[in-house]
Structures are given as structure tokens and as C-alpha cells.
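Example complex used in Figure S2.
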Amino acid sequence: MFKHMIIILMTSVLVNNYVLNKFLGICPFLGVSKKLKQAAGMSLAVIFVQVMATAATWPIYTFLLVPYNLTYLETIVFILVIAALVQFVEMTLKKFIPGLYKSLGVYLPLITTNCAVLGVCLNNISDGYGFGESLVSALGCGLGFMLAMVLFAGVRGRIESSDVPKAFKGLPITLVAASIVSLSFYGFAGIIDNLFK
Amino acid sequence: MEKLLIAVAILTAIGLLCAVLLVIAGKVMAVPVDETFEKVRACLPGANCGACGYAGCDGYADALAKGKTKDCALCVPGASKVAGEVAGIMGLEAGTVEKKVAFITCRGTCENTSDKFNYDGIHSCAAAELFFAGPGQCTFGCMGFGDCAAVCDQNAICIENGMAHINPALCIGCGKCAKACPNSLIDIIPANVPVYVTCGNREKGAMTRKRCKVGCIGCKKCEKVCESGAITVENNLAKIDYTKCTGCGKCAENCPSGCILKRIG
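Predicted assembly (462 residues):
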């Protein structure tokens, strides 16, 4: 059981990295990765919201949509629930944990429409995970997001201080760099099967 | 038909539930926002330049609202207009804000000085400075890679003829450029001073002369002609004390290398 959870966690962090292998959540990946501190803040918010969203959407799917044969509504219901949840979390943080709100606050509304969060919830369902497995998978995806963000913030730091050809300045070189980082993550393909044989 | 109704009903129910929860949460967890803060913040220009000494306009507004400071005249870009408005809200004395501008204490253009080697590295003053103190003959002078221009939010700085130029009309005196300059060549001075020293070279006169046509050679002529004793030459560089300067302009007329300039206009 424990090994199974570790496999799910490692898979979602390294092999099925949401940003670099599934190309979900690209906008924050490109938008907020300029500075390491912001990248870390955004990632923490994503981890938090992903786990919360999974905890909210999995029961709704299993106990509400499945019995009534409404599984085709999953996308729209999940969007609705996640949006409300993020708002709720923001208010709660603002009231009870102002310190955390100050560091995560700016990023929380951005996550409302983050496809990585929605993607995790939908994929957990389609992979047939149970509640516990879903939570672990969501946590792993969040950690994977953080890994990608922090790595890429470093890469962007290097780009900033290098002499980029004029035609590539700005977004083009960022996308080229992102694709190379993404390629490097394909090196993890197959690692899980061999690690936990 | 029944299937459709169930779908609609469930979706509506979820939506309504979320809405009700959010409304309740909004009421229960409403955090009272300080009205003074909001008002003060609305007056400030929002440039977040940090000239007031706080972390951006939010920081200054917060300090005022919480009574950490009573000085309403700290906002340099906003000048007396903002100081007046802020004082009105806070019920305090407005005080006066002196309009300040950034000023480059160098005139090392391509005509006046030359390079000692060709620099082909990263296009940044901070990087060039690390490499034998920059490519220019004068190690104190402007290298013209534009680190100051890059941090200027007002687009007040341009690089022309090998060095930076500041447009005083656009400059708000925030001092970001002064922090960015690796040679500390940029001074934030009151906008209405009558004369300024346009050199930062602290070498002996003979060396300065070799490096730049308009460098301060530390001859002390300005010190002698100044009737109010406002100019002192320290470390081979003239320095004007603006609290004593009467603006007679004699120093500028008598400077043999022409590095003291009268303000135009």
C-alpha cells in the first residue's frame, strides 16, 4: 500500500509532470517564473489548492455524479466547485492566517482558472484512483509543478544575464528554454518501473 | 426528459450551495479595511519607487495610516500636490516637498574621453565594471551601458554619445538609477540648484587631464572665487554645499576645465 502511494507520488512528480510532460498550467509556468521567490509562492499556492480541489471534487464525482449518470458534467461541475473553493480559501486565509494570505494571496485568484488544477482532478477520476490515491496524486502534481517552476526560474535567471539574439528576446527564448527543460524530463520515462520492480 | 431535469437540478443545486457558502463566508470573514489607508493610498502616485523610504506606495500609506510616521511630505514624485492631499486626509501639516531630480556627475562623452580597450562582454555597466573597472579611460566615469536607463520607470534616461543623459522634465527623483549605477555617478539633487559639478573623478589633476577633457582637476580655483564658501575640494574633486550656494555662478565662469556648469533655463 505504502509502496503504491510512493509510486503514484513519484510518477506524478517526475514522469507525468503536469507542466513539462502534459503541458498543463503553462501560463503560470511562463508568467510567474521570472523570480525564484514568486515561483515558489505560486507553486505553494498550487499545491495547496490542488489538494483541496481534489478533496472536494472526488466525493462530488463519486457520490453525486456517478449515481445519477451525470459523469459527462464533470468538467463544468469541477470548474464551478474549484472556483468557489479558491474564493473560499482566499477569504479564510485573509481572516485567519494573514501571514500566509500575504505570501500566497496574489497567486490564489490566478489559480482559479489554472488548467493544472482542473487537470489533476479530471485525471484522478479517469485514472480510477480512490480518495487517498487521488490526494497523493494531487500532492505529487503540485510538487512536480513546484519542481518545474523552481528549475525554470533558475533557467530564466541564466537567460536574463546572457546575450540573446534580438529576434529571440523575451517570449521566444523562454519557450525554447521551456522545451529543452521539458525534453530533459523525458529522461525520467521508465524510471519508476525499474525503481520499484 | 427526467434525466435532463436531474442534471439541471444537480448543477443548480451545486451552484446555489457554493453561492450561499460564499455569501456566508463573505459576511462572517469580512476583514475591516482601514479607510485611512485606502484614502491615502488613492492619493499616492502608485509608482512604487521607494523614494519615501518605504516598500512602495502601499508601505508608505500603511505607515501613515498606522501612525508610524507623521511626515506627509515624503513622496518625492508626487511633490507638494500629493503632500497636500495626504495631509488633508491625515489632518497633519503638509510640509514642503522639494522637487528633486537625478543628475549624472560625468560628461564623458565620446568627444571628451576615450576607451582604453574594446569591451565585448555582457552589455551592462555592472558587468563591465568588474572587468578592469570598465572599458573607459576614466574608471570613475559613465560607461554608457545603460544600467540606469534599464531601471528607470519614467523613461527619463537615454544613452547618447557614449553616456547616459537624464531628461529632468521626465525625472521624478525616485533614485532608482542612483542605486543602479556601479560608479555611484548619479546624485539626487534639488531640481532648482544653480550650478553643478559634472565630474566624479578623484584622481590627481594630471591623471584626470590625461583621461578626460572635462574632468575636475582639483585646482581649487572654484574654492577661491566662491564668496559664500560653498565649494570645497576634497580628494581632488569639487563639491558644492547647496545650503550655502548663492547661485552667483562665478565658479562655473572660472573653472578651467569647464566641469562646473550653470543650470540652463
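The radius of gyration of chain B is 27 Å. The first strand of chain B starts at residue 100 and ends at 104.
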